[in-house]
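Feature request disguised as a bug: please show the residue count (154) next to PAS domain-containing protein in the output. Example input:
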Amino acid sequence: MGNIEKKTDSLLVIRQKAEELHLMKESKFSSQLSEVEILKLIHELEVHQIELEMQKEQLMLAKDAAENAIQKYTELYDFAPVGYFTLTNSGSIIELNLSGSQLLHEDRSKLIRSQFGFFVSDDTKAVFNKFLDSAFRAHKKECCEINLLLEDST
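Example output, currently without the count:
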């Protein structure tokens, strides 16, 4: 079942429950309200419905703006002139940009879930491991300088 079908089913269930609650409450109130009070309630409901429609419109605009921002920053990330890598605390690559895959001379899809440490030279592996541990433990910006093992692209 797709997301749209799930949402539609969910909305139908909510509407059904609302109808049931409305019927239960209707019998209590309808006999106690005057015609003027009923008209006031109808007016309030109509105003509230318009408010909800306006809020929906604002939410749709905000959603569109968010989607545009996501696309913009995804493109900035993907096409940045330097390699960006997002790593787990164990050094596994979970995200990288195109420059990152070019830097490692490997297809981007093959690098996902691989260990970044495989590309770090033995003489700087300790520096990289210390950096990784410190970055995740301190939850702050860290930096280090390492040497990468790269295949000759010639």
